[in-house]
Amino acid sequence: MFYALRGSNELSASGWKMANPLAPAPTSDQAFNWVFVVDTMNFSFWPNDDTRQCEVTFRGTTHTGYMTLCAAITRAMEEGVPITDPKFFSQISVEELAHILRSDNETPMPMLQERHQVLTEGGRVLLQHGGSFQSFISRAENDARKMVELIVEKIPSYRDEAVYQGRRISLYKRAQILVADFWAMATAARGATDIVNMDWLTMFADYRVPQALVFLGVLRYSDALMRMLKSGELLHSGDRREVEIRACSIWAVERIKARLDELAREQGAESSGINSVLIDFYLWPYAKQHHREMAHIPIHHTRCVYY
Fold first, then answer.
1. Which residue from 64, 121, 150, 167 has the fewest beta carbons nearer than 10 Å?
2. What GO MF annotations does this protein's record show (predicted)?
């Protein structure tokens, strides 16, 4: 499936824009700050009650999940709220943020207090390093690996780590997706970027892409794990099962990437040109588009700020 899509817009940096139609035009610091604001609060959208979830209607379309956040931030911009200005969001009150993230119904966006904490924390870091996300990330010299390391070093909420069998496991979902979104936004703005080491990034281990990988037969859950997930048991961040689901998803995508390169070499090319970021950029909207077909595959439930 992926090899047939190589070179297409669906499997390119421009695919990010197709999956993020609410992002502002990539022409200014405001656009890159939008990416920072959204990715800093990009976690835990699944509802406590599956029958009712937070919804945001914007420009005639009602959004759920991650897109409620995108819609709410862009709605605030249109209402004149300086939500992409670090001077504003570093000092925003919980009440102001609650209004920005308001739902159409009685179900609020989950984890408001945590979103407020990480957003104000991130805003303060940007103010200490040039006052914008572009100024902050420029310290990493257009190197994707250095960007991730800088984000994780300076912003505590991005330190997505666990201990597994006595070893530290670094998953860094939001730090990596922030770099990938910056790369995609910069590519959309300039047509090409000089950001190196994009192949160093892995997929962004969340709860939706593992579901797609199981649906496609790339991962297989044990019967015991499947029963546990279907029961709705809440897993805490760092639980062995939670770490295994996320880490195996990362490794599965690395295997897909390696196989794509093998197929390309068989055809005389050096590589497929498809990195793990592009695979993730395709799989996440794929999971959304096929959510009815994969409804029998449960997502794992972990309330945390990491994904």
1. 167
2. hydrolase activity
